[in-house]
Design a protein that fits this description.
- By secondary structure, the chain is an alpha/beta fold.
- The chain folds into two domains: 74 residues, Translation initiation factor 3 (IF-3), N-terminal domain (Ubiquitin-like (UB roll), Roll), CATH 3.10.20; 88 residues, Translation Initiation Factor IF3 (2-Layer Sandwich).
- The chain is built from five helices and eight strands.
- It has a four-stranded mixed sheet with strand order 2-1-4-3. A four-stranded mixed sheet has the order 5-6-8-7, covered by helices on one side.
- It is elongated and about 95 Å long.
- It starts with 61 loop residues before the first strand and ends with a helix.
- 14% of the residues are buried.
- About 6% of the residues have low confidence.
Length: 221
């Protein structure tokens, strides 16, 4: 007596693994091609760490284009602008994201970054950094010590720095500030050829403060 198999063919008579009711195997997935396929180390597909939109990161439909010579090309499709940049071995950089459409420029981004860093270096080199030196005093600072500290203050001003004098009062001394004001007046008299008052003498809690700055006229001598 024979035995009949209990297995049944897939619904719709299709191949096992195909969708129910399908007439054949499922088509393989094919990813959409990028406008400009990556070429390994191709700089055209890189991402800039400074947050600047470059090349394929510019995803608007159209842009107002400026070519590498600085001439206005006009409004063109972004794909066309990318193709123009790539054909010339250059980059497409977004320079005005808020404009409608955004303004983009064809340039050598590596050279652009180098020039920007060079400008920043020159600017830092030419920048004058003014420091504020502090000199601590007491109302009863002796004449020898005061003379030494005033000489240091004169040197600081001659080097282009400001000087902040701080006279520290303790306990009941704060009720008798006249000696402090007299000391500041004496200091200004000694420094009159190299310094001018920037912040007049004033009390802040138990401290008397005065700031002097280099005298611009002294540099011309």
């Amino acid at each position: 007596m024979g035995f009949r198999s209990s297995s049944t063919p897939p619904a719709g008579g299709g191949i096992p693994g195909s969708p129910a009711g399908g007439s054949g195997p499922r088509a393989p997935f094919t990813p959409r091609p990028r406008p400009f396929p990556s070429r390994g180390g191709d700089r055209f597909n890189r991402e800039d760490k400074d947050g600047v939109r470059l090349n394929e990161r510019i995803r608007v439909p159209e842009v107002r284009l400026i070519d590498e010579k600085g001439e206005q090309v006009g409004i063109v499709p972004t794909v066309q602008a990318l193709a123009m940049a790539r054909d010339r071995g250059l980059d497409l950089m977004e320079v005005a994201a808020g404009a409608k459409p955004p303004v983009c420029k064809i340039l050598d981004y590596g050279k652009f970054k180098y020039e920007e860093k060079k400008k920043e270096h020159v600017a830092r080199k030419n920048q004058v950094v003014v420091k504020v030196k502090e000199i601590q005093l007491r109302p009863n600072t002796d004449e020898h010590d005061l003379d030494y500290k005033v000489k240091n203050a004169i040197s600081f001003c001659e080097e282009g720095d400001k000087v902040k004098f701080i006279i520290q009062f303790r306990g009941r001394e704060v009720a008798h500030t006249a000696p402090g004001y007299a000391m500041c007046k004496d200091i200004l008299e000694r420094m009159k050829d190299v310094a001018v008052v920037e912040t007049p003498t004033k009390m802040e809690g138990k401290k008397m403060m005065m700031i002097v700055a280099p005298n611009p006229q002294a540099k011309k001598k």
